[in-house]
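Subject: design request, 195 residues
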């Protein structure tokens, strides 16, 4: 990705992104707020014209299905977490969404809420009430790594209330999400830093 630094929380995400966006600078940050906060300091010292958080997320509503793409317009910390509740705006959601819609993937724009623990069951409904459409465990804490550069978040739904990971058919959904993440990485490798 021309000048863009990509933060990928998990090793599997890093490998999928690198395999599709060859030559991209992809940094694995680790999962959860503690690792993300530590990684933000490292990311702030990395070269790059923009910071993009790219990886999987959980969908929060019945419309979400594995393989859907969520382009964050805002990221927020869940108010009942042991962290300061905050809302951060992303810099280029419209341009990213337009670029990804051309791939034929289902793309939604909305808020991503960040939590300290994996959210399942009724916790998803509580988080949906915040106005978010997806949940992750890293994006808000990685934002500090942007260091004044454009900051954006693109996530691919891995599971949702109607497609939880521990249900039958989860492997099919995970494969669909992995293919979508690779397509997103390939498309965004040509996105550049202008948006």
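Subject: RE: design request

Done. Sequence follows.
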């Amino acid at each position: 990705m021309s000048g863009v630094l990509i933060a990928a929380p998990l090793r599997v995400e890093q490998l999928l992104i690198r395999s599709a966006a060859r030559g991209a600078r992809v940094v694995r940050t680790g999962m959860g707020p503690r690792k993300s906060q530590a990684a933000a300091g490292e990311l702030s010292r990395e070269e790059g014209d923009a910071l993009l958080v790219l990886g999987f997320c959980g969908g929060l509503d019945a419309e979400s299905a594995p393989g859907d793409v969520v382009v964050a317009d805002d990221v927020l910390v869940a108010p009942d977490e042991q962290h300061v509740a905050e809302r951060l705006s992303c810099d280029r959601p419209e341009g990213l969404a337009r670029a990804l819609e051309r791939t034929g993937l289902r793309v939604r724009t909305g808020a991503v809420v960040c939590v300290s623990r994996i959210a399942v069951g009724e916790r998803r409904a509580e988080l949906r009430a915040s106005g978010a459409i997806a949940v992750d465990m890293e994006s808000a804490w990685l934002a500090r790594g942007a260091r004044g550069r454009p900051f954006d978040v693109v996530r691919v739904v891995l599971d949702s209330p109607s497609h939880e990971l521990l249900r039958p058919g989860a492997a099919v959904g995970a494969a669909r999400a992995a293919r979508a993440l690779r397509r997103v990485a390939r498309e965004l490798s040509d996105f550049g830093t202008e948006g």
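The chain has one domain: 4-188.
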